[in-house]
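Summarise this fold before class:
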Amino acid sequence: YCLLGVPVLKRKQYLGIRVRWRSWTGNRIKDAFAALMMRPRASEKKYVSLISETAVWLNGPSPLGLISTRFFECMAVGAVVLTSSTPGVRKVFPEGTYVEFDGAADFREKLFWLIDNPAIADAIRNRARSFVYRGHTWQHRVQQFTDRMAKLRTDVEARRTEESSS
């Protein structure tokens, strides 16, 4: 239960689970209040540590359906990503590398299913980590970018050559 975006009391069914809560409501007053009342934003080193120590990370796409780097970061360090059902997530990640939920009741069911089935959670974690390291690290992204820029340059030069010879 929250007061102006600040968690004040855990619901009974979550009492045995350690939860780190960071909310953003989009309401300037609520978000400013939450920032004042909650612990400060984690440093980069602490952030990596938090994700690495987390068994399940609740993560969702942006309101526009964009997939943030946090999905990849969580998967790379071994946190199972629990996310709302979204077509964008299904387009980016293969089945079995994350867990989807549809609504609050399904969220609870999937969360406790992951907690109660560590072997299944480990299998998801391992598939996700492998997926990220095979083609979705920052090194891969930089290489994709430089490859595309090189192709663009080649295409532009070819067009210029074609235009000048016409």
